[in-house]
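Figure 3 (text version): structure tokens given as input.
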């Protein structure tokens, strides 16, 4: 590291500058941002996820729950009550410099499609899979069915009903 132009003093050219705050692009800046974000979320009543420190949730007295998930600089907020989402966005915007990009269409290589009429949400990784196939020159590879015998029937009743 070298001293910035205009700040070099004669006889002290080998000295470094001390940073008083984290600068964008430095290794520690993401950690500093997370610490600030985490402190703020805990102050406004959210709980950090037990298994994932990038997931925050809060249960309200009216039965609604809001979940916030983030990865690097992307954030998803989920709740059945849009007013609670807007309230959280307002609080986050007052504390942090952020942009609202509207309803999410894609995150972490997953495409999100909504069927508002039927109340369904679909996740797809088609484009990501195509990209991986192209990268490894497998676009024209012969397709093979899933290696599961045809006599196996899988249904919801077989999934675990308790955490144990």
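Below: residues designed for each position.
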């Amino acid at each position: 590291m070298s001293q910035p132009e205009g700040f070099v003093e004669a006889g002290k050219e080998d000295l470094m500058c001390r940073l008083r705050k984290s600068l964008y692009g430095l290794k520690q800046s993401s950690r500093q941002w997370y610490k600030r974000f985490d402190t703020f979320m805990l102050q406004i009543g959210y709980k950090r996820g037990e298994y994932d420190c990038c997931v925050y949730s809060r249960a309200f007295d009216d039965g609604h729950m809001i979940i916030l998930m983030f990865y690097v600089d992307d954030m998803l907020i989920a709740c059945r009550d849009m007013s609670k989402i807007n309230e959280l966005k307002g609080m986050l915007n007052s504390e942090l410099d952020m942009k609202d990009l509207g309803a999410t269409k894609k995150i972490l290589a997953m495409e999100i499609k909504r069927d508002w009429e039927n109340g369904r949400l679909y996740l797809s990784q088609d484009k990501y899979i195509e990209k991986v196939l192209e990268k490894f020159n497998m676009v024209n590879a012969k397709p093979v069915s899933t290696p599961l015998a045809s006599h196996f029937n899988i249904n919801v009743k077989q999934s675990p009903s308790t955490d144990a």
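Residues 103-141 form one domain.
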